[in-house]
Amino acid sequence: MLTEKQVKDIRKHLEKAQNPLFFFDNDADGLASFLLLRRYLERGKGVAIKSFPDLNASYARKLYELNPDYVFVLDKPAIASGFLDEVKKMNLPLVWIDHHNVPKPEDEIVYYYNPYHNDKTSEPVSYLCYKISGKKEDMWIGVIGSIGDGFFPEFAEDFAKAYPELWGENIKTATQALYTTEIGRITRILGFGLKDRTSKVVAMLKFLSTVKGPYELLDEEKAKPILQRFNQVNSKYSRLVDKARSFVKGNMLYFQYGGDLSLSADIANELFFLFPDKLIVVAYIKGAKANISLRWKKDVREVTLNAIKGLEGATGGGHEHATGAQVSVEDLPKFRENLMRQIS
Ligand SMILES: [Mn+2]
């Protein structure tokens, strides 16, 4: 967790900011982090970062376009030096809140906050932002960001009391909440909403910045564009998950697909929830490349790195139970074999 002092310092930064610009990771945790701070402060603009893994230098143009007096970066493990250079040039204070296991940045201009550097914990950034804002009426946003990031917050209990219809009986884990409850459905709605065109995302952020509560997100009228988008993506998504379920073979579930929408991380997450004992491998094929999401109850990092060994131009890495890899399509069969050999 952040210290009491750090939480107070962040509040001070927020209060000083008259026109803050929030850059946030393009997922439920990043989005919820932005919304919690935005709704606390009642000012500022948000930009979802689509570059991966860092906030890349191309986003510096947003600084010129929106002319902020303060920059906040939420839930991103790295910032490109080209971006930092522009921030320096414009003399802007930069507050960076993250929770990834990465070294502290050396840059002097950065006010850096990461619970990992306090006590090796890595609560989602939205969880931290809920502690910073302290607005009870926004607890639902803290829940969305937390379960979206696989974290079960202690305030889930209060949430269940306040919104029993959005929760359920015997919900014990974050993934259970994500896939079996109404607040989980809302989390997935927002996740797919972030995959829309930029103009649609901007409209969604505007709506969410002032929305009264979670029920408005299920309101067919008030949340019409967001729900329409969700239904559209979700029908594709559900078909893919249904199809993938029949691809279990031994200790592995290997599934590959194409199309114009990358959903491999989401598909892999749900398959991992459905088949917690299998190594989950979901490959999204686009052109000559395959982007692969892997999930496993054991350490999947080494398995991933071993599987790309010797494959030309292949990359891979990630977290203990969730990794990603990119290989060329022609090497996919080899990649699959390399995985199979390691786990059987
Ligand atoms: Mn994130």
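The pocket of manganese (II) ion is lined by residues 25, 27, 29-30, 75 (CB under 6 Å).
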